[in-house]
Amino acid sequence: MSAAAGKYLTFFLGAEEYGMEIRAVHEIIGVLPITRVPRTPPVVRGVINLRGRVISILDLRRKFDLPPVEPGPTSCIIVVAAHAAHVGLLVDRVSEVADIAAADIAPPPPLGGGAQTDYLVGIAKSAARVRLLLDISRIIDAGDVAAAGPGGGAPTAA
Amino acid sequence: MTCISRAAPAWAVARRHSSSRSVRVPPASRRPSRAILSRFERLSAGIGRLGASDLETRGALRTDVLGLIDHVPAGHARACVSLRLVAEALRPDRDRGDRQPALHQAARTLLDAVRRYLSSPKVSDRLSWIEGPERSTIAIMRNLPEASPALKPRTSDLIGLTDRRPPSVVARAESLPALALPNDTDRSLLGDFCDEAREYIESAEAALLVLEREPDNGDAAQTVMRAFHSIKGTAGFLKLDGLVALAHHGESLLGERRRRDGFAGRIAALSLRALDALRDTVANLDASRAGAALAYPPGFLDVLRELEDIDVEPGAATVEHGGSRSASAPTARDAAATHSARVRLDRLDALVDLVGELVVAHWMIAQDPASGHDHPELARKVAHAGKLVRDLHDMSMGLRMVPLRGTCNKLVRLARDLADRAGKQVDCRVEGEMTELDRNMVELVADPLMHMVRNAIDHGIEPPEERRARGKPAAGCLTVRASQMNGQVVVTVSDDGRGLQRDRILERAQARGLVRPGEVLNDTDLLDLIFAPGLSTAQQVTDVSGRGVGMDVVRRNIQALHGRVDVESMPGQGTTITLRVPLTLAITDGMLVRVGEERYIVPTTNVVVSVRPERGALFTVGGRGEMVRLRHDVLPLVRLHRLLEVHGASEDPAAALLMVVAAGDRRCALLVDGILGQQQVVAKPVTAGIGEVAGISGAAILGDGRVGLILDVPQILDLARRAQLNTQAVA
Asked: Which of B459, B623, B485 is nearest to B547 (CA)?
């Protein structure tokens, strides 16, 4: 699957700029107090109370094997709707909503390195900027799988 | 609803009456005679003197009370219902415990009320005489462990007082038009009809299974006939000719035909098929409300034709039965109307959810320092509101509680069908089917239970020859037992079959790479493998089980309900699978504990006691981990912060607190830093984007708006046990 043209929400993790399809985005909120959930992989930051709903927060930095940092003043949680549930993604900074034309999208390079290549569906190039377009639903699927591994497995797996 | 005056079904009329709040009372000329009234006096006095162990007297009094029903003047349906309640309270097998005096008192009060009701000259007095005691009696009896189905007097249960004149012409299968609803059908009435029909079908099904064991059980036959009769009446009103015909023939099949030929063979089989056809048609009708195309289910006409063939003398008796009492019917309906109301499920759910949030919201107010010691007046008001909120909560939870009876009946039916198909003989027993559970939970446990029954019949119980060869009775025994324990509902499905074949399980598990060759498992872990995905030990794949998608799904579904599934099995003697689920998912009563920098909620149902241990109470059993001695118990010590990987927690048990928790019969002492308070929380799932988290059953919003995690004590015990085994292995 490759990325389609359209509106993308772009955000930063460190110096890299990423984009996700805007229709997946439910809302963007500041960082609320996060309750850690034990026995989950590091990518699971924890859970927050979003107006009475409990939603889980995935740390995209850790997801992409970037060095972890504590949330700062520009940090945001992007709440996305996926698989009939809401999940929050912790990012360093939200940038803009960009209209990305089909002509600007290149297929993801066939390179092996970096965890994010699994979720990368395209690369958008425009005036001296490179934005990595992500498939959010794949990230969240992988989050489920990751949790089932170390502590979350069925007792029978022992 | 223009045509309602004609042959309106009882609920339709009930609705009309309840909305206009009118009550019709029979004419005074039908007053009971003095003789009957004095019998009431005698009975009432007799019950008053009744001792706790007078089982015989209870039985005799009960017979008297039941006899009295026949003498109650026509039109006093409510009095009849109340008398049935009295009779129910007096049933000798009803209650041997300490509540007997209360029951007797309730029965006597009710009997008094019936007497006053019947003798009261004033119309307005009558209902008030009887309604109060009746309510409290129902309340008392509802709290008994084994409430009987008779406790729910329904429209049609009013002792034959129903007025549903059967249509004079019953349609024939050969000339039956396609299933269709008249254009003027009131769609909401159709919904009510479907609900009511389903309940009738369910009760009829249970009764048919009773009949199968006891072909001469007249009560059971009556129940089935009443179901057919009621559905017939209502279907007639809705002009559903096919249903009318089917129910009509079904009724006479169970009536004259059964009385003449007994309940066996073709009659028994056809009754069940007729019921199935009814159920499927009702399902189609229900689906049509959501826009699905309407048609008779496959096989409907075949069943109807067979019924016509067998029914040589179409229902003279039933016509008489319906007609003779019709004059008194309106009051019967009025009486029923005050008894129950149908509420849409989504509204009920929304109500329960809202009350759940209210409980939490109130807790936040009560915790607020502003309503604390400085303002005693405000604190008092908050406390008062708190009591009301708790009552409201209890009451709203009660609204959604339903007995497991319907599910149990389905299981028995399934077991029977499967056994027939597999050429096996099975004797099904159900115990504790009146155990109550949140209705949402009832739906969710039904599928897992079906899986368990399928497995028991398919893999557990042997064919008759094999059983005989092993010296067992040819018929296998399947027992479904439900009970309530420690705030959980426990359902066990046991069979006396061949038991789980451990060698085969191990073989399969090794073939699937679940167990390394040469790895030694203890028996519990070995049996636990049946819950692993893709493991099936069936030699043949049948159409119902044996594809290896059974028990793993069962465990996953039950764990999702914060429950657990366990298995026990003795080779050659049978298998017992135990399923434990909480009564409800909506609200958890919890203790808020601090562990290092984190807070967790421990469900109060799991908490036994909290103590600050003395240093000498701790000891280590060589290689078996830490233990703590508390009074007479020795319990494993679980350092929660290690299990949950929390920093900053106290390492010294003597400086911290031990919370003894239990799940089923397993217990341990959790090391926590302190208890912050008790709190009711609305449990929410944490799984989105994370998946299942071992040891955590859910999350809740705490008083300060942050999220707190709810510990899953059974899983914590599992984790602790495994952690200990690992330590042992390292040591």
From this structure: B459
Residue of higher predicted confidence among A115 and A132: A132
B476-485 and B426-431 beta bridge pairing: parallel
Q: Are the Cβ atoms of B692 and A53 closer than 8 angstroms?
A: no
Cα torsion for B170, B172, B178, B183, to the nearest 10°?
Answer: -20
Q: What is the DSSP string of A11-31?
A: EEETTEEEEEEGGGEEEEE-P
- C-beta of residue A92 within 8 angstroms of C-beta of residue A45: no
Walk across the sheet containing B598-603 and list its strands. Answer: B674-682, B587-595, B598-603, B707-711, B696-701
**CA–CA dist A150, B713 (Å, integer):** 19
CA distance B331 to B637: 65
Task: For B177-227, give the secondary structure using H, E and C.
Answer: CCCCCCCCCCHHHHHHHHHHHHHHHHHHHHHHHHHHHCCCCHHHHHHHHHH
pLDDT > 80? residue B157: no
Quick one: which of B731, B705, B625 has its CA closest to B671? B625
Q: Which of B549, B567, B546, B547 is nearest to B557 (CA)?
A: B549
> A56 to chain B: which residues are within 8 Å by CB?
686, 688-690
Q: Helix-strand-coil percent breakdown of chain A, rounded to 5?
A: 20, 45, 35
Q: How far apart are CA B524 and CA B521, in angstroms?
A: 8
pLDDT of B336-358, one tens digit each? 344 567 777 778 877 877 787 78
List, in order, residues 6 or more apart from B447 with CB less than 8 Å away. Answer: B557
Distance from C-alpha of B616 to C-alpha of B628, rounded to nearest angstrom: 9
CB interface of B with A, residues 497-526, below 8 Å: 514, 525
Burial class (CB within 10 angstroms; exposed 0-12, middle 13-18, buried 19+) of B397? middle
Using a CB–CB cutoff of 8 Å, tell me whether B529 touches chain A.
yes
Helix (H, G, I), strand (E, B) or coil at B565: strand
Cα–Cα distance for residue pair B282/B276, rounded to 1 Å:
10
Q: Are B251 and B225 in contact (CB under 8 A)?
A: yes
Put simply, whether the predicted model's pTM sits higher than 0.80 gets the answer: no
Please count the CA atoms within 13 angstroms of the CA of B374 that sit on its side-chain side: 4
Q: Which residues of A touch B666 (CB under 8 A)?
A: none
Closest CA to B493 of B407, B422, B423: B407
Are B699 and A33 within 8 A, CB to CB? no
Side-chain-side CA neighbours of residue B549 (13 Å): 6
For B682, which residue in chain A has the nearest alpha carbon?
A52
ipTM of the complex: 0.83
Residue B336 DSSP one-character state: H
Check A148 against B552: CB less than 8 A apart.
no
Minimum CA–CA partner of B565 in chain A: A155
Rounded CA gap, B13 and B4, in Å? 8
Lowest-confidence segment of A131-145, B347-361, B444-458, B656-670 by average pLDDT:
A131-145
